[in-house]
Amino acid sequence: MGSTDLVFRKGQFIPVSFASWDGNNGEVGSKHTLTPWFWLLLPPDTNYALVYGASLGTTLAFLLAGFALVRSERRKRPGVRGTRP
Predict the structure, then answer these.
(1) How far is CA 32 from CA 3, 7, 17, 29, 68, in A?
(2) Which of 28, 36, 44, 73 is the most exposed place for a label (fewest CB within 10 A)?
(3) pLDDT of amino acid 45
(4) H helices within the chain, ranges in order?
């Protein structure tokens, strides 16, 4: 990339406007239509480890807590098992 190239940075607002020429309407050279300024925001890259890791970690923690709770309740009543004959 050259020193005069435009660089779009993620997470930074960039002002953008568009010019259009309608040749059928006689628009040539400096005679054209210009849009108002808009703000372009490129979102930063998604951290998938954070997005999916948090939900998977929470699910795993609840499962382990559930297993620990069931195990502790079964240890309190050693003679009681499931409803099978």
Answers:
(1) 29, 26, 13, 7, 72
(2) 36
(3) 85
(4) 48-76
From its phi and psi, is residue 57 left (phi > 0), alpha (psi between -120 and 50) or beta?
A: alpha
Q: Tell me the three state secondary structure of residue 40.
A: strand
Structure tokens at 2: 């050259």
* CA neighbor of 42 nearest in space, from 77, 84, 75, 7: 7
Tokens of 41: 């925001």
Lowest mean pLDDT among 6-15, 19-28, 74-83: 74-83
Hey, is 50 helix, strand or coil? helix
pTM of this prediction exceeds 0.70: no
